[in-house]
Amino acid sequence: MRPLKGNLTGAKRLQGDKLTEAEAIEQAKLGNEAAFKALYDLHKRRVYSLCLRMTGNTASAEDLTQEAFLQLFRKIGTFRGESAFSTWLHRMAVNVVLMQLRKKGLPVVPLDDATEGDEEGSIKKEPGAPDERLAGSIDRLRLQRAVDELPPGYRTIFVLHDVEGYEHNEIAELVGCSIGNSKSQLHKARIKLRELLRTGRAEKAGKR
Amino acid sequence: MNCLEFERVLPEFLEGGQTPEEHAHLASCPSCSNLLADLNSISSQAKLLIASEEPRPAVWDVLESRLREEGLIRSPEFIPAKTNNFWSRWRTAWLVPVAAALVMVAGLKLFHPFNAGDHEPIAKQAPAPAVVITPVSREDQVVLNSVATRIPAQRARYRADLEDANSFIRDAEQSIKDDPNDIYTQQMLINAYAQKQMLYDLAVDRGSGQ
User: Fold this and answer.
1) CATH match of A113-124+138-207 with 3.40.630.30
2) pLDDT tens digit string along A48-76?
3) Helix residue spans in chain A (DSSP H)
4) Domain limits of chain A?
5) CATH, range A17-103
6) What ipTM was assigned to the predicted interfaces of this complex?
7) If contacts are CB pairs under 8 Å, which of residues 74-113 in chain B contact chain A?
8) A162/B42 touch (CB, cutoff 8 Å), yes or no
9) pTM of the model
């Protein structure tokens, strides 16, 4: 008598059974559909959010999410567990997005200060008036909208560092810039966001 | 230090390179102090954006289609990992009754009292495998006694095969206790009992001289 395989679909089998990520990876290497779905469900929000934040576009984010997972599943047989699976997937997703930005001719790294002009990244102040604070009034939705309005180059650096938690040396390697440039551009991205958030507040106050 | 100078060093300040002069300026300048607080707030709030969006179900649908097109999806079935240990041990369990049957048939050929001239073994039997001494159930004992009476040379081998079958049953029962809803081990328990039944049947059939 040979050992029997399950006659339930993989999806049913996994529903009430907490399949670990390691088990799903091994099953995915065998081409198991339910395992692919389990891995996708586990990581889809992180990957999609990354793609959306970096492109500012829903359609692009969906395409890039599919592409990132497709590349992942093509290569899953080579995953040996030396690093965390999520790290491997995330790095792959970042590379997919950066490649797409480059293909479209969009700046992955912010341009030099000289070409962007002196105003970009500088702190605007009214003479004699102290800057009012934003602290306490930043909500996720407003910040999300402000990030979407950032120029692509600033957006990339800000998302990779402040949202996704990459270090400057990692960002430098990913986007092909210097560590100093990464730090400088991150600072300018934050300054720009502050302006966008303050502008949003001012418009809101004016409408009342 | 004035505000312009502070703004110039602000990126390094935020990265941790802070001097007493810079702190002194912050303490005396509300604008720069507010600026610093806002930038820190933006940075910390940014973490709220991580994994904050859910893709539409259609994203998976398209991905699944592409996985199928590329032949990456090969199996709809799932082999439960938690039964792997059970399977690895009892993968060939089905051989137990087959092996038992072969041995018993060979034993009968050599020792059957109705074959003329077969009072002595034609060939020596292989020594019986070492048997783990475990308590024998009443039913098993009855069968062993029957075998001992009719095919005495096979008793040790038969005892070993019964022990294997009982061990298989114990393992299956334990797996069922761990997960009563696991249909795979439910089937294996049925198989285990069926194998033991087969051993019983063999003992009865052969012992009756068929």
Assistant:
1) no
2) 999 999 998 899 999 999 999 999 999 99
3) 10-15, 21-29, 33-55, 58-75, 85-103, 113-116, 140-149, 152-158, 168-175, 179-207
4) 17-103, 113-124+138-207
5) 1.10.1740.10
6) 0.77
7) 74-81, 87, 90-91, 93-94
8) yes
9) 0.59
